[in-house]
Amino acid sequence: MNHSGTPPLRIEKSEFEQRVSACRAMLAEQGLDAVIVNAGASLHYFAGIPWTPTERLVALVIPASGRPRMVCPHFEVGSLRDCIMIDVDLLTWEEDVPPCIVALDAFLAGAKVGLDPEFSFRFVSGFKDARPDLRFGSAESVIDPMRAQKSSSEISLIQHAMSLTLRVHEAVFHALKPGLTASAICRMIDEQHVAFGAPQGSYFCAVQFGVATAFPHGLAGDQILERDSLVLIDTGCRIAGYHSDITRTYAFGSIPDLQAEIWAIEKEAQLAAFSAAEPGAPCHAVDDAARAVLEARGLGPDYALPGLPHRTGHGVGLAIHEAPYLVRGNKTPLRAGHCGSIEPMIVVPNAFGIRLEDHFYMTEQGPEWFTRPAHDVRHPFG
User: Fold this and answer.
1) HSE (CB half, 13 Å, CA atoms) of 67?
2) Does one domain contain both 156 and 261?
C-alpha cells in the first residue's frame, strides 16, 4: 500500500458511519447498552468533531440500537452542526440544568453504560449521581481497540504529517548555526511546518543541546547553540487531526567518541525493535527487543541508567500518545492498522541522551516505516 501521495482532506462521512456501526457490534459482544464518548480525540474519531473538553459536557451517546445522541450546551448547537459527520439526535442543556441528567434521560433502569476513560472524575461522579439505578463501567475495551487499528485513510493522513515533519527536520538541520537560541529554532520549526503545508504549524516542539539532552523532556530556560554540541529536536504537526512525532539527535560539529558510540547503539536498538514488530507478536516484544540490544552493550538493565528510562514506544493517531503502548507486560497482539513510535532513548545521567524516534504502521506482511530512520550521527539525513 502506497501512502506517499496526496492525502484526503478529511475522513469521509461513510467511514464515520462505519465506526459507529462497528462500535455497536462491540457493545453487543461486551454486553453494554451504550457508550458515552467525551469531547476530545474519541469524539473526533466517532463524529468528526474536533472539540476540546472543558467543564461543559459535550458528549456522544452511542446506544446498542437506535440513533446516536449528541449532548451539548444549547448555545453550541450551531458550531457542532457545522462539523459533525454523522446523523444524530441533539440533546441540549441550558446553563442551569445538570447536563449528566440530560445525557442519561433515555436509559431504562439497570442499563449498563460504558464511559469514555477520558472523562474527568467530575463527570464520572455526575453520571453516577444523576442515575444511581444504572450500571457504569469503562468503555476503554471498546474505544481503544477501535482507535488503535487505523484505516487506510487514517494511515495516509499520518503518513502525510510524518513526511512533512521529516522535511522540516532536514531543513532545520541545514539552517543551524552557532548562537541560535532553542526558542529561535522552535520558531523556525513552526514556520517551516506552515511553509510545508501544516496550517496550524507545530503541534509541539522540543529543542535541547548538550547536557539538556539527558532529560527526556528537557530543562527550563532558553539554551544557546554552540559549536561541537549534541542537538536533540523532537517535533510534530497535525493534518486533519492526525499527528506526526519525530525525534532526531545528531552532532553539531565534533562530539566525543562516547556520544557517537551510544548513538550507534540507539540506532541498533531502534532497528531491532522494528524487526520484532511482527504480525501477531505481543506489543511487549518490541520493548523486549530494544532492551536486549542495550543490555548486550552493558546498558540498563530494565529502567536503570545509563539505559532506557521509559517504554520503547506509543501508538499515534488523533492523540499523539495512544494505544497500543509498546511496553513491558502489554500482551496486545500487533495487528494490521496498528501505528506506533519506536524511540528507545538512551540516557547517560547528567551527561547526554540520544533519542531517535520514527513511527511504523503494521500491514498483514509486517511493519513499514512512515519515515526513514536517521542515517548517522553527523549526517542524519544521508
Assistant:
1) 9
2) yes
